[in-house]
Amino acid sequence: MPKRIALAILVLTGVAASAAVRPLPSADAATPCWRQVVDGWFDGRIDRSYAPHCYSEALDHLPADARAYTTAAGDIQRAMLAAVRSYRTAKAPARAPKPRVLQSYAAPKQAQTARSWF
Question: What are the counts of helices (DSSP H) followed by strands (DSSP E) for the chain?
Answer without folding.
Answer: 7, 0
